[in-house]
């Protein structure tokens, strides 16, 4: 009966074991996972756009090859995550349509424009850095297919973070103009990167329940703090300034005090009013429509093969 099933589910979560697709799970747990995994998948796919913008303008053949590989990795992450979401009983097509119709979200960060080559460095260092801090704990998420997908994604993200760091390191030791370009990129990406962790804990609607279910392991503010502490030392090595005059070590807390991002701006961007929201969704819609014949051809080919093998 339902009581036994709930008890079994609770015991699996309490014992830090994995819930698998065939297991009974509360409907709200399934819904929360579909929401979060789909948002995550959409973020990977939409996230290809701001960086894709620089593939044809990368400053050397080597940089171009690296960036191409990185953007392809993001497509792969999207695919693993859509596949993980599909184990919960929803199709990839439904998810993509919900994204295009604005019924599902993707990360706020990808609604900001990439204005210079240094932005590719800042995205790698800060955005992928924030993604790693947020995603490493997800490798221990209670839902098996999501946790397992995150292991490979985190390995690839840490490589992405290093490539961004290396771009900024090179620019920072280049001409004064290159250094200024690197600093300008860090100035623009810092606060949006802090906002990626979501609203403050006091306004986070899902955190408490998601932490009870061990989908989330740490709160938004805990992870944001961890990210700030990590960046301070790295900024020192880069010889770039974090654009926060109030950033300082607090010995009592054993952590840095810092200025919070503008959460009003975050809410506006989430609602669709960021600098690039319309452009990002429009581009995604166009790609989906223009790819319809490829999907139809692949399905027809698979059907033909299936008949041939009978
Ligand atoms: N961008 C867009 N929406 C956001 C963001 C953000 N940065 N932060 C929070 N939200 C939304 C939430 O989705 C939620 O809206 P919903 O109820 O309509 O879904 C609302 O704001 C309230 O936030 P929370 O209650 O704190 O939501 P949640 O518990 O889901 O925590 C978080 C948000 C931390 C982003 C979580 O969903 C998560 O860890 N997701 C997986 C990681 C991820 O998606 N990363 C994508 C960017 S990284 C990358 O792809 C390189």
From TrEMBL:
Q: Name one GO molecular function term.
A: phenylacetyl-CoA 1,2-epoxidase activity
The reply to whether Oxidoreductase figures as a keyword in the UniProt entry is yes
Q: Which domain of life is it from?
A: Bacteria
Enzyme Commission numbers on file: 1.14.13.149
SUPFAM superfamilies assigned: Ferritin-like (SSF47240)
What residue stretch is flagged as signal peptide?
Answer: none
Protein name, as recorded: 1,2-phenylacetyl-CoA epoxidase subunit A
**Gene label:** paaA
